[in-house]
Structures are given as C-alpha cells and as structure tokens.
Write a structure and sequence with these properties.
The chain contains 16 helices and 31 strands. It is of the alpha+beta class and 655 residues long.
C-alpha cells in the first residue's frame, strides 16, 4: 500500500467509489497552475512592452482573433485581406495572406471551433460573410462557404467551443443570424437562419453592433445594439425563423407574425442612469454598445459603451436599479442634527473594531460615532480630502476607494467619494454618487449629509419626484435642518422644474416613439443594473472598440481608446494600473492571448503590435507614466463633438 493510501482516511462509501475519485482528482498539473497565475501577474502588467510589430496590411486593422491553441493570430483589415500570423515562430511576415472577395472593410474574423483552426469566418461592410479553408492547396482566396443574408454591414461574428462549425453574425439590419456550415445554405427568403430580429421590437432604426456567446453556458447569447441595453438571450427558448425581405406591406406583416421571442427568453442589462424607461417613457439615449464579452467563468458580462464608460454586469446576482430607498430611521440621542451641509468632506470618525495596517481584507464591524481611525487609513482619507479641496477628483476618488477596500462599512468614505463623483460629473458619475449615498445611508440612517446629497443626485439625474420625496423625508426626520440654505435652494430648484414641466405639458410635447413593442417596453422596464464600472478611456470615434478580460480569473480589464492608448484596470478596485501607447491614432482591438501574458493590439495604423512583459529595468518608452491629464481630456472628448478632437478622418475609415 502506498504512503498516500496509508495516511489518507477515506470517507465512508467513497473508499471504492471510482466516480468520486475521478471527481476529486486534480485536473491541472503544477505547470498549468503556475502558467495560469503568471498569465496576468501584477508585476508583468506593469512591465509590458512591444515584443514585435506585424506588418503586412495596407489599411486599418479592425479585428484580431487568436486560435484556440494560441499558435495563430488572424487579422482583418480595410484592405479586404485576411492574414494569418505565426508570432511564436519569430516571423513577423504573414504566414498566410488571403485576398478575400470582400468589397468592404472586414470587421470581424473568427476561427470556427473543432476544425483544428482550418476554417476561418469573416464579416465585412459589404454585408457578406465568408468561410475560408486554410488547408486548401489551390484557390485559397475563394471561400468554401458564403452568405449574403444580411441587408446591412455585418459588424461581429461569434463562436462557442462546444458547437462545431456553428457561428453567429450581428448586422446593422438588426438581425442576429445563426449558421451551421455543415448544412446547405442558399441565401433565400425562406432560409430559417434568423435567431433574433431587433427591428421587430425596437423599430426600423435598430442595429446589432456585436454578439458574444457564453463559453461556459453556450445557451446564453449576448447582443449589443445601437442603444444602451445589453441583451442576454436563452437560445433554448428561441426557434430559428425565416429571414423575410420586407419589400412590401405583406412582408412587414409576415415579419411581425414570425416574431419568435417570448417574454422569458431574454434579460436586459443597462446602467441605472441610462435606463430612464420609467412610466413607459422612451430612453432617448444615443449610446451604442461597441463590444461585449463574457468572463472566463461565464458569470459576468463586460460591455464597452460608445460615448460612455465600460460596465460589468453580474449575470447571476444583478438587480434592478434602486433610485430611492430610505432605510428605517430610529433617531438616537447622539445624532448631530446641526451638522453643516456646506462642509465639502466629512471628517467624523467612527468607533470601530479597527483593522491594523497589515489587515489583508476589509473589516466588517458595527458603526458608531466615537474614536479615531487607524493611522494608515486616516492618512489615506486626509490625502483624499486634500485632493478634493484642490479639485483633483480622480485622485480623491482613488484615495477614498482605497479606504473602502480597507474598511468597507464606514459611511464617511462612501459619502466623500459620492461628493467627488458628483463634483467631477463625468458620464455615470452622478449615478455612482447616488449609489454611494445610498450605501452611506444604509450604514448610518441618521447621516443627514448622505440624505441631502442623495436628494441632490436624484434631482441632477432627472428623478425630480423622487428627489422631492427624499427632501421631504429629510425635513421630516431632521426638522432642525429644514431652514438650511442648501436644502432651501434644492427645494427651489425642484419647484422651478415642476413649474417648467407643467408649462411644457400645457403647450404640448412630442409624442413618444411608438415603434417599441410591448415586450420591448417590458424588458426595458425591468433591466438589471451594473455591478462595476471602468473609467478613463475614450470611445466615441469608432463603433468597433473592444473591452476584454485579461487573466484566467478576470482580474484585469483591457480596452483601447481614441487617443491611441490602451488601458488596463485592476479588480476589484477598478483603478487604472497601466496605460500604454498602442497606436498613433486609435486603438480599437486589444486581444489577450488564451494562455500567456501576451496582448495583440491594433487600430488605425496598418501594423499589429504584440505586447509581452520585459525585465523591470527596461526603458518603458511605450508606457504612459502620467495619464491623469489624458484621462480628463478623454472625458472631455466624450462630452464633445468627436470631430473637434480628431481631424484625421479616421472615423470614416474605421467605423
């Protein structure tokens, strides 16, 4: 008997159970575990540099895709060419250059699963999808499969590992099509390949911009479109139906009759401040989702939104947004009712079972108002207050976030961060401030400042009725503060807004858009809110900009930006940890290698850059050391006309 069997105490009934032995055995060897940990090690993230430049395209490189084993890299470009690279052979020249029959910019390229990376699908602005067999000895440039079922540009393709020879396409005609190249396909009107048609529910202006399939739950298919809603469908509840051409009124009626989506087949996700579909009012936001991707474990959805930030949704635990939620109020004798609302940051200290400077994780204890914070947290908080006073809100938010990481139940940190958000007021900041105010109130229902700033945030977000209710409750709970100057000013603002709306209603107003179906209005009404947000990049000039997980555990987020940089955020702090110069104009694509700490990036430049970690003492010429100003300018770009910042014409070539 081996030493292992002598010392291991087998549980009853399991000593001879082969199934349990197989279940409990280690699935990865030590080498694999080490590789996974080193794939996105923090010290590597801080020391990336260009490993190689792949030159061969003569147009903007709009899409990149690694093969399943990571040995090949495929790229598509405005030059209508599909190129395969073998970067690990130390060859920067194309391994295979396919001059496709596309007559428009190639926007997407994917390796079809379970084909030994021999079959590659492409989609382009000419509305065609092609499949190429790279093992063909002759006539390589001719596709072995083609489709022209889309009426508009095809922006993205998607595959999933457990579905061989199957892929999905998203087109600006609002359709998501599903193809199995093992079946005959003739591009006829009666072809049953349409899985989803957004125009059936949103109207003729609906465009599908991107599509992704959950790698762990392939029945989940996510769609990003020309609005702020990310949709996750359950394919098990959807039947393919015929395309239809909508050439006349009969075709239009047929299309409506063939709608195949039930109410329960989809879940909508949208940031709370953009989901203004309340009381059946239409969300008039012009936001567009340019890319979405599932986490490696399939439990999260990452969404890059045009003219906005990057949002992460928890698929299993997402909740509908809560704009006004007042915790139960039990007035205690130590409540400071005379607290000044004008104070920019709170300095009240709590009596806590306080953590030491070496505490590895946030401490959870009961909040009471008494003694001081430990020195290391007090220094972080003081530094945040100094940044706030000097209007350096980005740095202030980072400091307060560090405090929350160390002590996650202190209401002062949340309120101070909320104040910084509301004063900075970048896209999504006011709503993030509202959420922090709610957290502060849950921790301390007697916190009058949190109560007031919640009312202010509601008003600034356009929830005037909720703001009035919140302010009335504040006056009821804290009668001594009713005459406070700031409270009176907010009351006047609310009253003026109510009067303005009353006059507008008397003069008549535009009727809401009636193209939305009843199901669409229902789905938007119950859309789920985000759990994390990543700020710093700029996404306005192109509608193909990506955002991806980096690392097997999704511990980092990467995305390109309009100023030519790509950004890396760490989780759970969601702070920028590194910025690199990846293009002379715009970085659209940032594709992590499936197994190594290696990134492939591309954009307006005609070359592809490969990034890998270097020695710590290397000269980081491509790293952006001081990026605070760049981040501020990026937010200004998103709030302004993009052509004011980019006169190069790149948008005409890459979008």
């Amino acid at each position: 008997m081996s030493k292992f069997h002598r010392h291991y105490h087998w549980p009853p009934r399991a000593r001879r159970n082969v199934v349990l032995l197989q279940r409990d055995r280690p699935y990865y060897d030590i080498e694999t575990l080490v590789k996974n940990r080193l794939k996105a090690a923090p010290q590597f993230i801080q020391n990336l540099d260009i490993e190689a430049k792949l030159e061969g395209h003569v147009g903007c490189v709009n899409c990149l895709e690694w093969s399943s084993n990571g040995q090949l890299l495929a790229s598509g470009s405005d030059d209508n060419r599909l190129i395969l690279w073998k970067p690990f052979h130390h060859d920067i020249k194309p391994a295979l250059d396919i001059r496709t029959p596309h007559q428009g910019n190639i926007f997407s390229v994917v390796f079809l699963p379970q084909t030994n990376d021999a079959l590659i699908a492409t989609a382009a602005a000419d509305r065609y999808c092609y499949v190429f067999d790279v093992n063909r000895a002759t006539d390589l440039d001719s596709p072995c499969w083609k489709c022209s079922c889309h009426n508009q540009r095809v922006k993205r393709l998607a595959t999933v590992p457990d579905s061989p020879c199957i892929f999905w396409s998203a087109g600006e005609d609002g359709r998501i099509l599903q193809f199995d190249i093992r079946e005959p396909h003739h591009c006829t009107r009666d072809e049953k390949v349409c899985l989803i048609d957004l125009q059936n529910h949103v109207g003729a202006t609906a465009e599908a911009k991107c599509v992704a399939v959950n790698p762990r739950r392939s029945e989940q298919l996510a769609v990003g479109s020309s609005d702020a809603y990310a949709r996750v469908y359950d394919r098990r509840m959807i039947k393919l139906f015929r395309i239809g051409r909508m050439t006349d009124s009969l075709a239009q009626n047929d299309r409506q009759l063939e709608d195949n989506l039930s109410r329960d087949c989809v879940t909508y996700f949208c940031p709370g401040h953009l989901n203004t579909f309340k009381d059946r009012k239409l969300n008039l936001s012009s936001k567009t989702i340019t890319y979405l991707s599932f986490s490696p474990e399939g439990t999260e959805l990452l969404v890059n939104m045009g003219s906005e930030q990057i949002y992460l949704y928890d698929l299993n635990n997402a909740q509908e947004p809560v704009y006004l939620s007042m915790p139960q109020f039990n007035k205690s004798g130590d409540t400071d009712e005379s607290e000044s609302l004008e104070t920019p940051t709170d300095t009240a200290i709590s009596s806590l079972e306080l953590p030491s400077a070496n505490s590895p994780s946030p401490t959870s204890v009961t909040y009471t108002k008494q003694s001081k914070l430990p020195k290391h947290i007090e220094e972080l908080k003081k530094c945040g207050n100094d940044f706030m006073e000097n209007e350096k809100y980005l740095q202030a938010i980072n400091q307060y976030s560090d405090c929350i990481q160390l002590l996650n139940n202190h209401p002062v940190f949340y309120l101070n961060r909320a104040t910084a958000y509301m004063r900075r007021n970048w896209y999504g900041d006011m709503y993030s401030g509202l959420r922090d105010c709610q957290t502060a109130l849950r921790l301390d229902p007697t916190y009058v400042k949190a109560h007031f700033r919640l009312a202010r945030a509601l008003f600034e977000l356009g929830f005037v009725i909720e703001s009035s209710e919140c302010l009335d409750e504040l006056k009821k709970r804290f009668p001594k503060d009713s005459n406070n100057k700031q409270i009176q000013l907010l009351s006047q603002d609310i009253q003026a807004h109510v009067e303005q709306n009353r006059n507008s209603n008397q003069n008549g107003s535009d009727s809401p858009d009636t193209e939305l179906s009843d199901n669409e209005m229902y789905w938007r009404t119950i859309a789920k809110d985000f759990s994390e947000r990543f700020v710093g990049h700029c996404n306005t000039t192109t509608d193909i900009k990506e955002a991806n997980y980096f690392g097997d555990d999704g511990s980092f987020i990467v995305a390109g930006s309009d100023e030519g940089n790509f950004y890396i955020w760490e989780r759970p702090s969601n702070k920028i940890v590194a910025v690199y110069k990846g293009d002379t104009t715009i970085v659209n694509c940032v594709q992590p290698h499936p197994t190594l700490c290696l990134l492939a990036t591309s954009g307006i430049d005609h070359e592809i850059r490969l990034w890998s970690p270097k020695q710590e003492e290397f000269d980081a010429e491509n790293r952006v050391t001081y990026y605070d100003t760049t981040v501020v300018v990026n937010q200004q770009r998103m709030m302004a006309d993009p052509f004011e910042f980019n006169a190069s014409g790149a948008v005409c070539r890459a979008s």
